[in-house]
Amino acid sequence: MISARLGRDYDPALLQRDLESLRSLPQAPQPGPYHDGDWTGLTLYEQGGDRPGTQHPHLYHHAPAPALEHAPYLRAILAELDCPKLLVRLLTLPAGSDIGEHNDAGSNFLFGSLRLHVPIVTHDDVVMVIDGERMRWRPGELWWGDFARPHWLRNDSDITRVHLVIDVQVNDFVLGLFPSDFVAARRGDGISAFRPPLPVSERTAEALAPFRCAFSMPAQLMPLFGKGGGLAGLARDAHAECRPEEGRLVVTLDGEPAFAMERVAARTFSIVGQPPGIFVEFDAAGRPGSAEVVVRGVPEDLYAAQLGFQQGPVVPEQRFALGLRPTADTVGP
To answer: Aspartyl/asparaginy/proline hydroxylase domain location, by residue (predicted)?
Structure first.
């Protein structure tokens, strides 16, 4: 199965009402080399969305962006989807425009991130194809598509096509939207589900102090963690330092805050803002000497995957060893 209509339907008129209230807000061209720039979006959930003006929004969870304040029906839809959200956007494709064939390699059950769509404005002459099969989705319907497979889109109509696109982390609520036999089959292939952080008592500065360390971040992982740089500039190892901050571990790469981690088990940390299919496992809870970054459900070539062109098969699990070193302020007698 490459698509599924899920158990929710929404009022097309109310969707259109909210869309009209958002039309005056600026949209941004979407990333990727497989379109000519006409494909644009308005972000409704983003990292640090509830912290306007924060210097490093990528250290925080995805949260409603200011634009969502103008869209009460969309806000209610997203609140009713009882799962952690990643990026949420209103994506717009004008008449006569197209999006070339590509893959969203990290959109799968094993990586723990799925892409849901609610069409708002569409037309029979808008052609969307996933893995050779044409999709026919109507306004107000909630759909999942397997966008890890090759897909493309062409707007042959005379209208501007608009979809609400919701990236979610997999949890029991999300799985409950799918047919039970489909979920059972996916469990056989592997599912990475969201894990909540441990109680606050396990995430105090004192509890996290043993994890303060330094290490080299492998170049293979830089497309996931090297925020703010071009891919060519990320093709090298980076010096990383890890320190407790605000109940989390914050990791700097070459001196710049790059990502944060939350403790979900004694020795295991999730990556804030990333799906549950990527996490860090330390070898001990007290002064660990090594760690591994575990990545599930993506191909080996993360550079090509970030560009939307998957090279090679999906790898069920990859482990990247980190040799930990003490930082200057952890060296003691």
So the answer is: 28-168
The two structure tokens encoding residue 47: 């990292």
- Secondary element (H or E) of residue 85: strand 85-93
Q: Is the distance from CB of 104 to CB of 115 less than 8 angstroms? A: yes
Residue 328 falls inside a structural domain:
no
Q: Are strands 126-130 and 133-135 parallel, antiparallel or unpaired?
A: antiparallel
Q: pTM for the full model? A: 0.95
Number of Cβ atoms within 10 Å of the Cβ of 96: 11
Q: Same domain for 213 and 175?
A: no
Query: Tell me, what's the pLDDT at 235?
Result: 64
- Looking up residue 37, the CATH number of its domain turns out to be 2.60.120.330
Instruction: Tell whether 102 and 154 lie within a shared domain.
Output: yes
Which residues does 286 contact at the CB level (< 8 Å), separation at least 6? 210
Answer with the one of 161, 189, 217 that is the final residue of a domain: 189
- How confident is residue 333, by pLDDT bands cut at 50, 70 and 90? very low
Whether residues 231 and 295 share a domain: the answer is yes
Do 308 and 236 lie in one domain? The reply is yes
Distance separating alpha carbons of residues 165 and 162, to the nearest angstrom = 9
How confident is residue 231, by pLDDT bands cut at 50, 70 and 90? very low
Domain that holds residue 206: 200-323
Distance (Å, whole) CA 261 – CA 196: 12
Rg of the chain over Cα atoms, rounded to whole angstroms, equals 21
